[in-house]
Design a protein that fits this description.
By secondary structure, this protein is of the alpha+beta class. It has one domain. It is built from 2 helices and 5 strands; from the N terminus they run βαββββα. The protein has helices at 32-45, 91-96; strands at 18-21, 49-55, 61-67, 74-80, 85-87. It has a 5-stranded antiparallel beta sheet with strand order 4-3-2-1-5, covered by helices on one side. A hairpin with a 6-residue loop joins strand 3 and strand 4 (74-80). 14% of the residues are buried. The mean pLDDT is 91.
Amino acid sequence: MKHPPFDRRGRRIRPGDLARVVGVPDLSGMAPETRAESLPVFERLVGSYRRVAGFDRHGLVELAFRFRGGAEAGYHSVWIEPSLLRVRASRGTIERAGG
């Protein structure tokens, strides 16, 4: 199943957009070792804004980033369902909407 490129509110996601991670994906299909490595990274991402790097062939959004400290310190790339993101409105969008 290919995921459509729309966030939780139905806004189109494009490479370069800034998006807030609003949930952790279901990792139950992963091997236990991989899940143990990935879950803390996704949990730490929730609530943060990350730049969209691109999409894979399944429509998952790629986020590439660095954690500067903690147990997960270092560079990471994750792929996450678009529905677990919320695109940040651009300043022009806010002004046109009267906000």
